[in-house]
Design goal:
By secondary structure, the chain is of the alpha+beta class. It contains 5 helices and 7 strands. The two termini are 20 Å apart.
Length: 190
């Protein structure tokens, strides 16, 4: 990843978000519209979500991820256990400017959310990081450690529910606490 990039919490950024997102296009109109709608809701404090922006030194937004703490219900296909509700950190939206695909920016934003989950999990119990993926993106998320959970969503056709078990984060460098989850390589135990 380029050295002139920074991950910024949307509410901490003093830049002009609307102008920065003017030329943002992830190549999927529905996602672009959702991102702009999410930004408007964040501006007006109508959203419970948080957002991280990947911005270059010129103030251009190259990527966007929105996330929130939620309870997620899962129904097993067999129906024998009924519905199961678990606390999760949900990735609501992820978009990378289409001129910046295949540069690792999507991975960096997802890793930032996973690091945020690890930081939050120290204070509040959560079971997983979850998201709903477009079919063409399932492999991308699997490479990052997510698993598809179709068996909990019988009959789902549009996309896939993906799940990153927080237990795996507890086992990896448990004592490392991220000083700032937004920095690319900053940890308390360097």
């Amino acid at each position: 990843m380029e050295d002139d990039l920074v991950l910024i919490d949307y509410h901490s950024w003093i830049g002009d978000t609307n102008n920065a997102l003017l030329n943002f296009d992830c190549g999927v109109k529905e996602i672009n519209d959702e991102i702009r709608s999410e930004i408007n809701d964040l501006e007006e404090n109508k959203s419970k979500n948080r957002a991280i922006l990947l911005v270059n030194k010129k103030g251009v937004v190259l990527g966007f991820v929105s996330y929130s703490l939620e309870n997620s219900s899962m129904i097993q296909a067999s129906g024998e256990y009924g519905a199961k509700s678990v606390p999760v950190l949900n990735i609501n939206l992820l978009g990378i400017n289409n001129s910046d695909f295949n540069k690792g920016y999507g991975s960096q934003l997802v890793v930032a959310v996973i690091r945020m989950a690890k930081t939050i999990e120290v204070l509040v119990h959560i079971e997983a990081v979850q998201l709903h993926s477009l079919e063409e993106s399932v492999e991308f998320y699997e490479k990052l450690g997510f698993s598809e959970v179709r068996e909990y969503y019988p009959g789902r056709v549009n996309g896939s529910k993906m799940y990153y078990n927080i237990e795996s984060l507890r086992d990896i460098d448990f004592l490392k606490v991220y000083v700032n989850p937004f920095l690319i390589s900053d940890t308390a135990n360097k």
